[in-house]
Amino acid sequence: MKFIDEYRDGGAVEKLVHAIEREATRPHVIMEVCGGQTHSIVRYGIDELLPPNVELVHGPGCPVCVTSLETIDRAHAIASEPGVIFCSFGDMLRVPGSSGDLFDRRSAGADVRVVYSPLDALKIAVENPTREVVFFAIGFETTAPASALSIALARRQKLGNFSALVSHVRVPPAMTSILGAPDNRVRAFLGPGHVCAVTGLDEYRPIAERFGVPIVVTGFEPLDLVEGILRTVRLLEASDPRVENQYGRSVREHGNTDARRWLDEVFEVTDRKWRGIGAIADSGYRVRDAYREQDAEHRFDVAAIEPREPPDCLSGQILRGVKKPSHCPLFGTRCTPETPLGATMVSSEGACAAYYASGRHLVRLGTRRDERRADP
Amino acid sequence: MSACPVPRSSYDAIVLGHGSGGRLSHDLVARVFGPSFSYDESFAVEDQAIVRIPGAGEIALTTDSFVVDPLFFPGGDIGKLSVFGTVNDLAVGGATPLSIAAAFILEEGFDIATLRLIAESMRTACDQTGVRLVTGDTKVVERGRGHGVFITTTGVGVRRPGVRLSATLARPGDRVIVSGTLGDHGIAVLAAREGIELETSLVSDLAPLTGLVDAMLVASTEIHSMRDPTRGGLSSALFEIANASKVGVVIHESKLPLKAEVRGACELLGFDPMYVANEGKLVAIVAPEAADAVLEAMRRHPLGKDAAIVGEVVGDHPGIVTSRSVIGGERIVALLAGEQLPRIC
């Protein structure tokens, strides 16, 4: 298939891997920011091909997993209101809130529909004028412009029955937050290709400069990723903290100006809570007051729903690499993939879920005894 | 499949994923039906059962319900599907299908002319495969309690003499052969479904497998297992074989036959073609020395022209299916958790 197969060429990947082996002379910790990149890395086994001194750390860029418990619970409350058609991207249906997921709501009679674009939700609103149609607007700067467009179109078409529950998040503040933590291990980033296709590179230069970390904006195919890693390693070896663009076939210097205009028209920057990490300043978008009729948080009375993440969950520290899942007393007991308490168990790329999948909860007690014995 | 969030495996009420043919379906059978009906270790291992009739030999028996939406899709309809689906479950067990019984659950208000079209389509499908629809039943439910029509078919057949195919018979070294391109049915139906504007000329692969199975069984006696990878796709079929035979399976991703339209749709939606349904394909586990002869025989048949050896059975990692990626990395192909959902990340 054109534009895909050439980026999955095993021979070309091997050459770049050899170059990484040759050029990486010391240990490097590189974070891939985007969940899509993590999926590709796991799917193609790219991390297995790298030399041991080049470590990939999975970033917080899975929009499904970082959506706050509070937002999920509000979504569930709205979906359960009689007469509501609740439209969501597919993978959000499985994300657990304080009690169950959207599949449970659907099973209990809620009208929850999978859409591929907010514009599909808009169409549903046109076709069902007597029903309230709510779109669950989550994701990074990639999905936000289409949400903004649907909100603007609903206003323009005077669609009184369409609103969006907006929980969009922004990547650069999350990167800043990771780098600013005292225990940070990340020394470079593979930047988020699709996000930068919308926003351009402007916001990334100050981060590279301030923290002295190279950022290589990278695509999602195996060859993109391996090339992105090689270019990052070169910058790290040269101690050259600059921003480079590996994904030139999609990313322009200033991004997609139309998309940015819609974002700016409908949304304003706000603080946002991330599941497992907590609040990050300026890390989200919210609906501007001019569009509040299309804001589901305004139309539905959900502001009072403010569940607290379990205080004894260590996922925040695990996300930053400070603690291991086996250090958490809840791991494998109260917290399992069926009853996840934190983002690192919700996300299948999360450390707790990975530990659980490989059966480490079964040997935890033994390990702990060993640890105790090793203590002086 | 790597998925976010981590899929749940336990629900207190039925969710759609219980019908996906993946982990939730297996779980439902094991937790709810197993305790009541596992008379022996052969419970729910095969797609059909062999019933011994005292003094009268053996018959092969299978049953299946059809709830496809839309009722008419590119390349077929619910009627044809309900006949071929049951015929294929018998065929891949090495049985010759003979008779079919059909039960119809009709929704109040359903158009009789449409029902007639479905009945005619079933008759054509029966004629094509040499089976007779000999008995049936109709029930009507109130408007809103059905989806036009649901059909359940039950098929009986006789096992060919000397043929023994079972999901328990895969051995390390065996080759994995698929009969053609994967995922055509699932993507064609998805594209035809309202709300998904996927423009494609793709049609379902819906077809009876009896002729292809005949050709294969004539070519070799060294075919150990066969499955038609319907819902849950190739991954579910291989998972069931790996578990029943206590072996591992390694698939080479680059060898999977895929139509460009299916690849494109899967790329777009974040689907893995190994999880997408087929209705006219089979996967066979064949002894290594017989693999080429079986492949050759399959390719001579119109339904097997794109047949390919896509992997092998291994002694390592029993019960686990892995996939070697085009760039050489290896990953575990987990059983589909619930429904395959379009990913945003």
Description:
The complex is a heterodimer of chains A (376) and B (345). Chain A is built from 18 helices and 11 strands. Chain A has 376 residues and is an alpha/beta fold. In chain A, the strands form 3 sheets. Chain A has a 5-stranded parallel sheet with strand order 2-1-7-8-9. A 4-stranded parallel sheet of chain A has the order 4-3-5-6, sandwiched between helices. Chain A has a two-stranded antiparallel sheet with strand order 10-11. Chain B has 8 helices and 14 strands. In chain B, helix 3 (112-129) links the parallel strand 5 (95-107) and strand 6 (132-141). Classes of the chains: A alpha/beta (376), B alpha+beta (345). The interface between A and B is large, with 56 and 35 residues.
Write the layout of secondary structure elements.
The complex is a heterodimer of chains A (376) and B (345).
Chain A: H1 10-23, E1 28-34, H2 35-44, H3 46-49, E2 54-61, H4 63-66, H5 69-79, E3 84-88, H6 102-107, E4 111-114, H7 118-127, E5 132-139, H8 144-156, E6 162-168, H9 171-180, E7 188-192, H10 193-199, H11 205-211, E8 215-218, H12 222-237, E9 243-245, H13 257-266, E10 267-274, E11 278-287, H14 296-299, H15 315-319, H16 343-346, H17 351-357, H18 364-374
Chain B: H1 23-37, E1 49-53, E2 57-66, E3 72-73, E4 76-77, H2 78-91, E5 95-107, H3 112-129, E6 132-141, E7 149-159, E8 175-178, H4 184-192, H5 210-219, E9 223-227, H6 233-245, E10 248-252, H7 260-269, E11 283-286, H8 291-300, E12 308-314, E13 321-324, E14 330-332
Parallel strand pairs in B: 5-6, 10-13
Antiparallel strand pairs in B: 1-2, 2-7, 3-4, 5-7, 8-11, 8-12, 9-11, 10-12, 13-14
Helix pairs in contact in B: 2-3, 5-8
